[in-house]
Amino acid sequence: MVKKESTLTPEQYHILKEKGTEHAFTGKYWDHKEKGKYVCADCGAKLFSSNTKFDSGSGWPSFYAPEKEKNIAEKEDNSLLMKRTEVLCSKCQGHLGHVFDDGPKPTGKRYCINSGALKFKKK
After folding, report:
1. Element (H or E) spanning 14, and its range?
2. Which of 40, 43, 92, 112 is catalytic?
């Protein structure tokens, strides 16, 4: 079996494969306003739409709903002495960020996602 060569940058690899994070207010999509879709930087799965993006003030791209529920997975994360819910790409299992219950209507969710886990496809 031939292993696929990674096209991820070192930062993308650290976030997606090693469950890393970028510093707040440093990622390229935290204040991004263009219309389009955000896809997984590794496998290209459609994850979020600009229609559900909002300014949470957290310094990371935030969305109140995924593009399709089946394209993300959630997993309990008790690292850093906190109880959180990790968000993963369901296709490649790449770490995207975390989801919290303090988002806007209609879902009340805040998907706090690392820019390094995403690529943007302009509408």
Report:
1. helix 10-18
2. 112
Q: Round to whole Å and give the CA distance between 123 and 118.
A: 15
Q: Model-level pTM? A: 0.91
Q: Is 92 a catalytic residue?
A: no
- Left if phi > 0, otherwise alpha if psi is -120 to 50, otherwise beta: which for 97? left
Contact 35, 121 (CB under 8 A): no
R_g (Cα) of the chain, nearest Å: 14
Write out pLDDT tens, residues 59-76.
999 999 999 999 999 999
Give, rounded to a whole angstrom, the gap between the first and last alpha carbons of the chain.
Answer: 37
Ordered by where they begin, the domains of the chain are: 10-122 (2.170.150.20)
